[in-house]
Design a protein that fits this description.
The chain has eleven helices and eleven strands. With 294 residues, it is of the alpha/beta class. The mean pLDDT is 97.
């Protein structure tokens, strides 16, 4: 049995689709079953509730050959440790108590870099990884950079202003991955019962791009001028607070962006295995352009 947490999230729903396409038995943990697509709901077992709840994970993880672990975003949390390790406490205990065979989790790049300890969300994510690995359950942490799909948050600015905003230095080449490639890697690992121990699995996209290059690709695909504009830490903090984030989570978001500008995503040597297939241009053609044109 494959157990999927956060099955309606951008990555989780694609993991579910990949597993169902492989005819794997799937159980999902979801707060509101009505949010599942009807074609999914009729093919999966459903455990209703939060995977932060000990009773829910005890039920969901019973007899699980593999678990896909994804902590949902909580910008209102009182601290990043609460948002990640605190949320994961019940699940981590259930991995061993329920004899889960293996775990695949969504994580981040940065382990071992000089700035990893001051990287906000990423620091907390890596600390959670360490807690999972310490249980002895076989664990693969999908170490991701920023997602191409995050660009969808700026459809309005791209369409109406011709501007792509972000905290990253405009001339800094960075890895970038599509969520569909993360989901594909997760499904492969969940279906593969041969691996043991703990390892990070970096997923870096096919090549590094600067944000100026990203804006140029978007402009070419859309057939209209688009430029990149870097935002200041002060503006990023204000934006997070205006969006309702807690003080701790707003500062953690800024700390993550600062750490990325200082090399957080560059501690991994790119290999063929770490280079996922979806190019930013292909993603823009297939995902961003239809969203902008809608």
């Amino acid at each position: 049995m494959m157990v999927i947490t956060a099955p309606t999230s951008n990555i989780g729903r694609q993991v579910v689709q990949n597993l169902l396409a492989a005819d794997a038995p799937v159980r999902v943990v979801v707060r509101d079953p009505a949010t599942l697509a009807p074609a999914v709901a009729e093919r999966v077992e459903v455990v209703q509730g939060s995977h932060a709840d000990p009773a829910v994970v005890a039920e969901a993880f019973a007899g699980a050959g593999a678990v896909f672990w994804l902590v949902p975003a909580d910008p209102h949390a009182p601290s990043v440790d609460t948002a990640y390790s605190g949320f994961a406490k019940a699940g981590i205990e259930a991995f061993t108590a329920q004899g889960v065979g293996r775990v695949v989790g969504v994580s981040a790049l940065g382990r071992g870099t000089p700035v990893a300890g001051q990287a906000g969300y990423v620091t907390a994510t890596l600390a959670m990884d360490a807690l999972i690995a310490a249980t002895g359950v076989p664990y693969r942490a999908l170490a991701n950079p920023s997602f191409m799909d995050n660009t969808l948050r700026q459809v309005g600015a791209i369409r109406n202003q011709g501007v792509l905003y972000g905290p990253t230095r405009p001339d800094l080449p960075v890895p970038l991955v599509a969520t569909r490639d993360i989901a594909a890697a997760a499904a492969r690992l969940l279906l593969d019962g041969t691996w043991t121990g703990f390892e990070e699995v970096p997923l870096l996209g096919p090549g590094d791009l600067t944000h100026d290059e990203m804006a140029a690709i978007i402009a070419d695909v859309l057939g209209k001028p688009v430029r990149y504009q870097q935002t200041t830490p002060e503006a990023n903090l204000k934006m997070a607070l205006d969006q309702g984030a807690s003080e701790a989570m707003a500062h953690a978001r800024v700390d993550m962006a600062t750490a990325k500008n200082n090399g957080l995503d560059h501690g991994i040597i790119r290999t063929a295995a770490a280079s996922t297939p979806t190019t930013f241009r292909d993603w823009c053609v297939e995902v961003l352009k239809p969203a902008v044109d809608a």
